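Give me structure tokens for this 308-residue protein.
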Amino acid sequence: MERGAWSCGVTSLLASPSSHTDEKCPAARQMPRAATSNDVDVVATDRLAPLGRLRQLWRGRPISFGPVERRAQWKGNHMRITISDDEDSQHQVEIGPPDECPVCHRHIEAKFLELVIYNPGFANPHELQVVFQCPSHTCQSVFIAYYARLGLPGPFAFGGCRPFSPQCDECSAEIKQLSPGFCEIFQQAQIADAMGLHQICGLGYRKALEFLLKDYAISVEQAQADEIKASHRLVGKGSILNAYITDRRIQAVGERAVWLGNDEAHYDRRWEDKDVGDLKRLLAATVHWIEIALTTDQYTKDMPNPGS
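Here you go.
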């Protein structure tokens, strides 16, 4: 167990912040610390059996704690956890439990299981890890919610949950058939985005856009497939968007999506007032107009004009 962590009967898996994250991935370690404001007032009763004696290093010297029990109480949308030891000393922490399961994403009233307190001490902790369980019968996942105190004294702010299963937008059947590569890359970019990897998700969206535009251009100009695949120019004179795609709506949004996608790959940004959110909206617009073009072409082919 890590120095300075005081654990209420939790297994060693949950004993330190680094035991459940990859030390080689700073983004994974930082995410639980990214506190958002979700402060508290709080409190349902679940009396837990006393736990065995705990032994922990505190500032270099061993300290023993007697039998401990925890009670979690609900009041409205908040929870108050009371910790008692064998010396009749009681301390309370108040938190705002997550109202959505990070695995199945259902709206839930999370079931409290365990609590881990981190430095600087038992009475005034700075950080908490609280173990909850999803009550949904089809999920039942156990997850950890992270909290950080905004100040002493002060409320705890919710900083995210682990494990976390990102929700990704599904591609339509038309886009899946047109460009399976786009769908795969787009989904991976969404996962990076949801995990807070904002410095790299833009590159994923930019790569997905290139696959989409090239696959659509090949569907329009199949005889030029080799030239389209070999081309490194998406915008400008003689580019994919100008030479092989004639729909002006796709050209307009696709070109601007490429501009912002390039900004995500370069040191200097040309469009300083735009960000990944704008890139995602332009990418969605590009997908939208391509879907309309594909649907129009398909019905025009399936239902030729009887009078022609």
